[in-house]
Amino acid sequence: MKTLIIKTGHTETFDAHPEHTHIVSLGDVLRTTVLLEVFKNEHVTWFTSKEAALLLKKNQKIKKLTTDFSDIENEHFDLVLNLERTDEILEKIPHIKTSALLGFSNKTLPEFSSKTMNWSEKLFALIGKKWTKETYSFYWSSPPSSSSRLKIGLNWKVGQKWPGKSWPLENWEALEKLLQSDFDISWQEGFHNLSEYIKWIGSCDYIVTHDSLGLHLALAMKKPFVALFGPTSSHEIDLAGLGVSVSTEDLSVSTLADIINLKAYRHD
């Protein structure tokens, strides 16, 4: 069975007011990979953006990865799963040769999207299935740490799309001072280079991160973490037993340091 998944990251899957911007939501693409377990026995083609392709490039559950629509416009698919609501994609959907279409054929969100469900539950409901704790599908490799101390990564920057998620730099600097006697502290690398960013996340033993791509990469790599949420809500993301979530509202640096000291050693 041939299945086509369309997810480029140009719109947030369950955003009530989707806008096509030049800023790609890489985290939205990565967490869509939970669906690959559903189609693991099928021939999956994934159409994505050039920006997101690296996240999917080595995935063995994807038989064909493309960023060029002309690669798929003459193929016939048993199923097309469209997870984008840009005008460009919606105009092309009727012209794709397929026996069945799931996902979006217009910009309207399904009624269940407003219910209290986490993101993965909504995604599975969109294709008429129940989420049973499937996790992200991501392939990466990283050399083992040579340090005798735990390396804690401070994923302190946020992308252009959600500047309101930022926690003040002076708080991160104060956090480093409280932790550096017990841990090796590593500041975020590869902010403008996805490959380097993935390598950096992979090199850390524990991640302190905003609700951002760094959080999704930590989940995909099964790295323990503390995730800072604000103004976004933590209920949408299943932490898979790997981390804890804290609200940045009235969060003190010392409280966060205490959480890290407790949780990081527990995952050692």
UniProtKB/TrEMBL annotation:
Its GO CC terms? Answer: cytosol
One GO molecular function term?
ADP-heptose-lipopolysaccharide heptosyltransferase activity
Q: Its Gene Ontology biological processes?
A: lipopolysaccharide core region biosynthetic process
Source species: Bacteriovorax stolpii (Bdellovibrio stolpii)
Q: Name one Pfam family in it.
A: Glyco_transf_9
Upper classification of the source organism reads: Bacteria, Pseudomonadati, Bdellovibrionota, Bacteriovoracia, Bacteriovoracales
Query: What's the name of the protein?
Result: Uncharacterized protein
InterPro entries given for it?
Glyco_trans_9 (IPR002201), LPS_LOS_Heptosyltrfase (IPR051199)
